[in-house]
Design goal:
Blueprint: E1 12-20, H1 26-36, E2 40-52, E3 58-63, H2 66-79, E4 86-89, H3 95-105, E5 112-115, H4 130-140, E6 146-147, H5 151-158, H6 165-179, E7 182-186, E8 195-201, E9 206-212, H7 222-235, H8 240-256
Parallel strand pairs: 1-2, 1-4, 4-5, 5-6, 6-7
Antiparallel strand pairs: 2-3, 7-8, 8-9
Helix pairs in contact: 1-7, 2-3, 3-4, 5-6, 7-8
The chain binds 3-hydroxy-5-(hydroxymethyl)-2-methylisonicotinaldehyde (PXL).
C-alpha cells in the first residue's frame, strides 16, 4: 500500500531478541529505545524470560521454536524488503536459535548488524553460556558490523582476563581482529573506579568513553538499551563512533532516571534524556 504521509519515513530497525516480562531488558528495552530515538522498531522474538520471585528471581527461560522464529523473520524481511538495512541481535539463548537467525540474516544484504553478544543474564550462572558462546562466535560474530560485549562477554570472546582499562582495550582490539566489526566493550560496574568506561575500537580509532558511575549496582536493560541506541543511530546515518557516543549518553541518563524494582536490579528508563 502506498503511504500519503508527508513526514520523511523513519528508518526501520529490527531487533531479534527475547522478551523480558518486567520490561527492563530484552525486546521491550530495544523497542522503547528505538521509539525514543526516532526509528521504526520491529521485533522477532527468540525466547520468553520470566523472573521467578519465588526462586530468588532466577530466570525462567522458554525458547521460541526455531520455525516460529523463521516465520517472524520471513514476514518482516518480506514486508520491508529494500527498506530494512539495520538489525540488532540480542538474546538468542541456544545454538538452534543462532542457526535459524544466521540463516535468515544471510538471506539479504545489511548495512548494520549490531550484535549484543548476550550470553547470560545478570545473576545467572556462567555455565549456561558455553554452547551458546561457541555458536555465537562461529555463526553470528562473522556477520556483525558492530558488537557490544560487556565485561563477561568480552572475556569470553577474547579469551583475555579483564581487570582494568588497559585489559579492556586489549580485549576490544582482539574482538575487532577476530570479527572485523566495530567494538564497544563495556566495563560497567565490573571495573573499579569512579567512572563507567567503555572502549570503542574499529581498527582505526580507539576511544575510551567515560561517564561518572551512578552507583555501584548494575541496572537491568543497560546493555540492551546501549546496543539498541547504537542500532538506532546507525540506522539514522551516524558513524559507528558517533553512534557509540550518543548511546553512552542515552544510557547514562536512562540509568540516572531508573525505575525502582523489587527484583535485584532496577530498570533503566529510556525516557530519561
Ligand atoms: O540483559 C540481558 C538480557 C537480554 N535479553 C533478555 C533478558 C536479559 C536479561 O535478563 O531477559 C530477554
Amino acid at each position: 500500500m502506498t503511504s500519503t504521509a508527508h513526514a520523511p519515513a523513519p528508518a526501520i530497525t529490527l531487533t531479534i531478541a527475547g522478551s523480558e516480562a518486567t520490561g527492563g531488558a530484552g525486546a521491550q528495552a530495544d523497542l522503547k529505545t528505538f521509539q525514543q530515538l526516532g526509528t521504526y522498531g520491529i521485533v522477532a522474538l527468540t525466547c520468553i524470560v520470566s523472573f521467578d520471585p519465588q526462586d530468588n528471581w532466577n530466570h525462567r527461560f522458554v525458547p521460541v521454536e526455531p520455525h516460529v522464529i523463521a516465520d517472524q523473520l520471513e514476514a518482516t524481511q518480506t514486508c520491508y524488503e529494500g527498506q530494512l538495512e539495520t538489525v540488532k541481535l540480542g538474546m538468542m539463548g541456544s545454538p538452534a536459535t543462532i542457526d535459524t537467525v544466521a540463516t535468515a540474516l544471510k538471506g539479504q544484504a545489511w548495512k548494520n548488524v549490531v550484535l549484543d553478544p548476550v550470553l547470560i543474564c545478570k545473576g545467572q550462572e556462567p555455565g549456561h553460556a558455553l554452547d551458546t558462546d561457541q555458536a555465537l562466535k562461529a555463526n553470528l560474530l562473522p556477520l556483525a558490523t558492530f558488537v557490544t560485549p560487556n565485561h563477561f562477554e568480552a572475556e569470553q570472546l577474547s579469551g583475555l582476563t579483564i581487570t582494568d582499562e588497559a585489559s579492556l582495550i586489549e580485549a576490544a582490539k582482539s574482538i575487532h581482529e577476530a570479527s572485523g566489526a566495530a567494538v564497544l566493550a563495556k566495563g560497567g560496574v565490573r571495573l573499579a573506579g569512579s567512572e563507567a568506561i567503555d572502549v570503542f575500537y574499529d581498527g582505526e580509532t580507539l576511544e575510551v568513553l567515560r561517564a561518572e558511575k551512578i552507583g555501584e549496582v548494575a541496572v537491568s536493560g543497560a546493555g540492551c538499551s546501549l546496543a539498541a541506541a547504537v542500532t538506532a543511530e546507525l540506522a539514522k546515518g551516524a558513524t559507528p563512533l558517533e553512534a557509540a557516543r550518543t548511546a553512552k549518553e542515552f544510557v547514562t541518563e536512562g540509568i540516572r532516571h531508573r525505575v525502582a524494582s523489587a527484583a535485584p536490579f532496577d530498570a533503566l528508563w529510556q525516557g530519561g534524556k
